[in-house]
Every structure is written in C-alpha cells, then in structure tokens.
Write a structure and sequence with these properties.
With 453 residues, this protein is mostly beta strands. 3% of the residues lie in helices and 40% in strands. The protein has two domains: 21-335, 7 Propeller (Methylamine Dehydrogenase, Chain H); 351-444. The protein has helices at 4-12, 83-87; strands at residues 22-24, 32-35, 44-50, 57-63, 66-71, 76-79, 91-97, 100-108, 113-116, 124-125, 138-140, 143-150, 155-158, 166-167, 180-183, 191-195, 199-203, 211-212, 222-227, 235-239, 244-247, 255-256, 266-271, 279-283, 288-291, 299-300, 313-316, 323-327, 331-335, 351-357, 366-371, 376-382, 388-395, 402-406, 415-420, 425-429, 441-444. Strands 1-33-32-31-30 form a five-stranded antiparallel β-sheet, with no helix packed on it. Strands 2-29-28-27 form a four-stranded antiparallel β-sheet, with no helix packed on it. A four-stranded antiparallel β-sheet has the order 3-4-5-6.
C-alpha cells in the first residue's frame, strides 16, 4: 500500500522528454542469413566490426576503397564522408582505439595506414604509407598503447598508440607477407604471425626476435590467426588446404581440428567474446562453419547464404555467440532461432550502462539504459517477454556512469538511482508505481561515483 508521501511525490512527477515507441524484435529461422544491402555495389567486403560504444552500429571496409557505416536495425548503409576520395584504395582492416573510441584506424591496399580522430568523418595518412597492403590493425588487449599492423611486407609495431611505428624485422632479407597475426592476450609478449607458404613465425619477447613454429602443421599456407581471450595458450590458424589448426601451448605445436568441415580452404576465423568456446570459420566458396566446443567439432551453418565467393571476414556480435556477420560481396547476418539471438532497440547515443529490473510491478524485467552523450536515462517497459518495449527518456542533468535500482521509499516500487562519476553526484528518480518517474533529484556527494550497492 502507498504511503501519503508517495502520493505527494507522484503528483510532482513530470516526464522531461517522452519518446514512446513499440519496437518489435524479429527472430529468424535456424541458419537464415539476411543481406544487409550494402549500398553502392558491387563490393568485395574485407572487414566488418561494430562500434565498441554502440554494438548495433556496423562498419565495413571494402573494395573499392570505402568505409561504410550502418545501424543494423534499419539495414541501411552510409559511405563515411571522404573515405572514398581520401583513402581511394581497398580497406582491409578497421579498428577503434580502446582508450579513445573517437579515434579509428584503417589498413589499406598499397597506401598503408590511415587515421581518423572523428569516428571516420575525415581521414589522414600516417607515417606507414606503403606501397604495401596493411591487412589489419590490432591492439594489445593488456596495453592499449601498443598496436600492431601486419602488412604485405612486414609487421609494424607501435608502443605509443600509433604516433610512431617500427619494423618488427621478422625476415630482414626478403620481408614477410604477414597475412595473419595474433597477440596472445594472457601472455602478450607472445605473438604469432601467419605467412602464406612460410607458415607461422613466433616471438616470445614482444617482437624483438622471431622463429618459425610449424610443428604439427601439414599446410603452411596460412590465411588467418585468432587467439582465445579466455583460454591460455590457445590460438587457431586457418589454411588454404589443410583446414584449421589449433595450438594449446602458444604456438609451440599445432593439431588439425576439422571434424565436420567439408571444405578445407578456410579464409577467415572469428571467436565469440560472449562465449569463447564458440568459433566461426569461413571458406573460399561461401560456406560458414561453427564450432560450439573450441574447435573439436564443426557444424555447417551456411544455410541459405547463397554465395560462392570467399568469406573474407567474420565478426561475432559482442553480446551473442549466435549472431555473426560475414563479409563477402555484401555483409550478411546470421541469427539462429531458439538461441540467444540479439534484438536491437534504440537507446540513444552512447548507451554504456544497463539495469534490468521490474519497474511497473508486472513481474517482468524491464530495462533502464544510461546514455552518456545524451545525459539521460531511458526506461524501456517490457510489454511482451522481450519482443516489444515502450520507451520513455528522462534527462539526468549530467552524464550517467552507473545505475542502481531499489525501493527507496518503502512503497513496493523500484526507484532508480544514477551515479555521475565526473560531476560527483547521484540523481534519484522516484517511481509512481506504473513505471513513470519524477524529475530527477540530484545530490552532490563530493566523490566520484563508480558503484552503487
């Protein structure tokens, strides 16, 4: 039962910004692929990534040399301004700087590395200028000031977040085509470089010295290498005729693991971040395979993909091991029904924090998302077991950095508390019991708020 004070608070409630919407989620049938309709074709898609702050936003590097951006809720694409005219070559690798996600990097055909400081709106050439192909840009997961650029000539290493680059000098005589590269996340001084026709070079000292490490490889024509973020010493290498090889000792020895793979010409590999036991592999004729058990067995999930060209890149959605993107002549998305498929709902700009809690007393968990750039929170009322939400936005007056929820008034309704680390404040939103909230009350606490308990 409500107290008198609760009724007074309800009377004072005012929605600052209201954006009601009913957003329906769609589940695809098993192993159904959906074209994302990349604009301006025909293309060859070399790389696919998501925005680290907004994982429903995709970026694609293509031939001809353009970078495209899409909100995959709408499956529409926009060519990033100036990318085609400035870079004007094939784009093979795209990466965000984990320390500052406004900064992006692109590896290109014959023109080296380009950098953007405004999320891809404008691009400038770096000191690594070619004329060779830069296949990828990789950050050390334990030290994000250290970067790696595998190229058609050598491996370049930066220890100052890309300001300067140095040649790793793997082969000082003829150079190497460093088509595949991985740094071992749990032992970052150990690095693996895959070279077509040569096999795998390994460094145990951060790239100072290198040696061939092909024990167990029956095919040395390497096309890709990926390292596990979870399992120490584990990495996977794909080849053009021997399928997939796995190491459990950081590259000392390799073992073929191809049970279930029907085409051993593998072009691309990807490991799920949300479930690191799940791995995907793409072939040279448009097939995609999935392993649920760290590569021990593989399932053909090609389904109705319907392409015959090489699967140049695979990217697993960071929130679900069952949503994967394939870069071929277009970007195709696989969602597997009955599994933890991802549904996309707009939450405003830079939604970094999320709380699940029942705010309208219907026994179903609702969502509360904090939007840093918009300085707001969005309350998303769950209308049908996660398939439909109604959304209302409330201004917080400061950038929300942490969210908590609980019954602060003792009236049986869950209220919301927002912590603002930079402003050293907390904002309280009182719930009227139906999932509507008062204008936030902000309280200065004098310390950075990093956690609410």
């Amino acid at each position: 039962m409500r107290t008198r004070s609760s009724y007074i608070l309800t009377a004072l409630c005012a929605v600052v910004v209201s954006q009601p919407s009913d957003l329906s989620a769609q589940l695809d049938s098993a192993n159904t692929w959906v074209s994302t309709a990349l604009a301006g074709g025909p293309h060859t898609v070399h790389s696919v990534i998501t925005d680290p702050d907004q994982p429903d936003t995709l970026f694609a590097g293509t031939s001809p040399g353009s970078i495209y951006k899409s909100l995959n809720t709408t499956l529409t694409w926009t060519e990033i301004a100036n990318a085609g005219t400035t870079i004007s070559q094939a784009v093979y690798g795209i990466a965000f700087n984990p320390l500052n996600t406004d900064v992006m990097w692109a590896g290109t055909l014959n023109k080296g590395i380009y950098k953007s400081v405004d999320r891809g709106v404008t691009w400038t050439a770096t000191s690594v200028t070619g004329p060779f192909t830069t296949w990828d840009i990789v950050f050390d997961p334990s030290d994000t000031t250290r970067m790696f650029a595998p190229t058609g000539l050598t491996l370049f290493i930066s220890t100052d977040a890309g300001t300067t680059w140095n040649d790793a000098r793997i082969d000082t005589v003829s150079g190497v085509n460093a088509l595949g590269f991985a740094v071992m996340p749990l032992s970052p001084d150990t690095m693996l470089v895959g070279v077509p026709t040569d096999g795998i070079y390994r460094s145990l000292d951060g790239g100072t010295t290198w040696s061939i490490s092909n024990s167990g490889l029956t095919d040395v024509d390497i096309t890709a290498i990926v390292a596990s973020l979870e399992f120490a010493g584990t990495a996977y290498a794909s080849t053009t005729g021997g399928g997939i090889f796995v190491t459990a000792d950081a590259g000392s020895t390799w073992t073929a693991q191809n049970t279930g793979i029907t085409n051993l010409n593998i072009e691309s590999l990807a490991i799920s971040r949300s479930n690191p036991t799940v791995i995907y592999a793409g072939s040279d004729n448009g097939q995609v395979f999935k392993s649920p058990d760290r590569g021990l067995t593989w399932l053909n999930v090609t389904g109705d993909l319907g392409v015959s060209a090489a699967v140049n890149d695979l990217f697993v959605h960071p929130d679900s091991a069952n949503v994967v993107y394939a870069g071929v002549d277009d970007i195709y998305r696989l969602k597997q029904a009955g599994l933890d498929s991802v549904s996309f709902f707009p939450t405003g700009t830079k939604a970094l924090i999320l709380e699940t809690i029942d705010v309208n007393s219907d026994t179903i968990a609702d969502l509360v998302a904090g939007n840093v750039n918009a300085q707001s929170v969005q309350v998303m009322l769950n209308r049908s077991q996660g398939a439909t939400f109604s959304t209302t936005s409330y201004a917080t007056g400061a950038k929300p950095t942490v969210i908590g929820a609980g019954d602060l008034e003792g009236d049986g309704d869950n209220d919301v508390v927002i912590g603002n680390r930079l402003q050293q404040t907390v904002a309280i939103l009182f719930n009227d019991g139906t999932g509507k909230f008062c204008t936030p009350t902000e309280i200065f606490v004098g310390r950075s708020v990093t956690e609410l308990v």
